[in-house]
Design goal:
With 429 residues, the protein is α+β, with helices and mostly antiparallel strands. Helices cover 20% and strands 24% of the residues.
Length: 429
């Protein structure tokens, strides 16, 4: 009788072991998978196991960061500086990471790229290429992605089976497409007065220039801009690079209000130079986030008419690089009093503080020259501005910087000091 009981007990134990082996194979170390499967040549992961269609699926969300490596770094909008160029878009963020208990390699990764306008081609799961449309405006490129993770088989008796994890991600990047110069008719585009550019091949126009020989030697710098960026209520506050907003380069809307839209020309190189200059000054302990833009773009319609009207009290020029989007008048104004800060520590704000900045501009331009960089340019010191529409507001010393791309006929950097016409102008009023 005892032998029969022992046999029955053995049979029960064997039956229980068989059930556990089938239901919970992870309890038996020799059955666990020791290595992950290799990746396919196209970098797509090989499925570790066939997904359990009966298993529940838990969904989570994550954010995808997209960037355009050929453009200026920004969080708001990419300035399209070439309508014929194909712009590369890449994913800068990593795939979501699953918690413990899941295969580290996803079961599947699927992405869908979408565009509002233009032409979009997916290169691979991590990048795409976008060609701008003919129409101006803000264009958005989006990516929707799903990532599926499946659980490992090694689970304890006390744990129920983990669900499949499905991550859904979204990301987008915006481009600001400009108007082509062909849309400017009789000096106007959408009601905005651009004006007429001086003709670099007209001897009469050249005769009024301060240095006609340099213009003849570098005509490419003084050709009318090809691309024009629209500024209105929806675009004026867009960050275009390094915390600079598009509207900061507009034609002084605070003191010369006019109906939108406005249009500006803007060479991305002036933004690069301003950031290089700020970074260099920050490295020496002169801390500020960005330069205050006293004036960026000035249309020929404004610049040339003001030059003629102001006569000897004008600090503007006939071939001003502000008209080509290649220049900026800047100051450092951390305390926001509309006047250049005391950078040299002498207790006052004057042209010497602009000269303090010029030393860093000189250093940069010498480096640009060695590198044959197009960022090399001219620089001028000014004790005050001549934007008389502002009245006495923000009357401050400042410095002009530009990216004309050349030096003088002797190979030296082009530098100048603006004349003091403030008292002369005040006396003429």
């Amino acid at each position: 009788m005892r032998l029969v009981l022992i046999c029955l007990l053995i049979l029960v134990l064997l039956a229980l072991a068989g059930y556990l082996f089938v239901r919970f194979p992870g309890l038996f170390p020799w059955t666990q998978q020791q290595t992950l499967p290799p990746l396919k040549p196209d970098s797509q992961p090989v499925p570790q196991t066939t997904p359990d269609t009966k298993a529940r699926t838990e969904e989570r969300t994550y954010e995808i960061r997209l960037s355009c490596p050929d453009a200026l770094p920004t969080e708001d909008v990419v300035l399209v500086s070439d309508l014929e160029k194909t712009w590369k878009i890449r994913i800068d963020s990593a795939l979501p990471t699953p918690p413990d208990g899941y295969f580290p390699t996803p079961q599947s990764v699927k992405g869908i790229w979408k565009e509002q306008s233009g032409k979009l081609d997916q290169v691979n799961d991590r990048s795409a290429e976008w060609t701008p449309p003919d129409k101006e405006g803000i264009c958005t490129v989006e990516l929707e992605q799903t990532v599926l993770y499946t659980p490992l088989k090694s689970e304890s008796l006390l744990n129920r089976r983990l669900p499949n994890l499905l991550f859904r991600g979204k990301g987008s990047i915006r481009f600001l497409v400009p108007v082509h110069v062909s849309e400017i008719v009789d000096g106007k585009v959408n009601g905005f007065n651009v004006g007429k550019y001086p003709n670099i091949y007209d001897e009469k126009d050249l005769s009024e220039a301060a240095a006609p020989g340099r213009i003849r030697s570098h005509p490419e710098t003084y050709l009318p801009p090809i691309l024009w960026y629209r500024i209105d209520e929806t675009t004026k506050d867009l960050v275009i690079a390094w915390n600079y907003r598009l509207g900061e380069f507009d034609l002084d809307p605070q003191y010369r209000p006019s109906p939108y839209p406005h249009y500006i020309a803007l060479d991305p190189n002036i933004l690069r130079k301003l950031n290089d200059l700020k970074t260099r000054m920050n490295a020496d302990g002169i801390l500020f986030d960005k330069f205050d833009i006293l004036y960026g773009f000035r249309s020929p319609g404004y610049n040339l008419s003001e030059f003629e009207k102001d006569g000897d009290t004008s600090l503007k020029s006939e071939f001003s690089l502000h008209m080509y989007g290649k220049a900026a008048d800047i100051l450092v104004d951390v305390n926001r009093d509309l006047v250049m800060d005391d950078l040299n520590g002498d207790g006052k704000a004057d042209i010497q503080d602009a000269r303090f900045i010029l030393r860093y501009v000189d250093e940069l331009d010498r480096r640009y020259l060695l590198d044959s960089s197009p960022l090399v340019g001219g620089a001028g010191l000014y004790p005050h501005h001549d934007f008389w529409e502002r009245g006495d507001v923000a009357q401050s010393p400042y410095i002009h910087v530009d990216v004309r791309g050349f030096v003088d006929e002797h190979g030296k950097l082009i530098r100048w000091v603006g004349k003091n016409t403030l008292k002369q102008h005040q006396q003429s009023q």
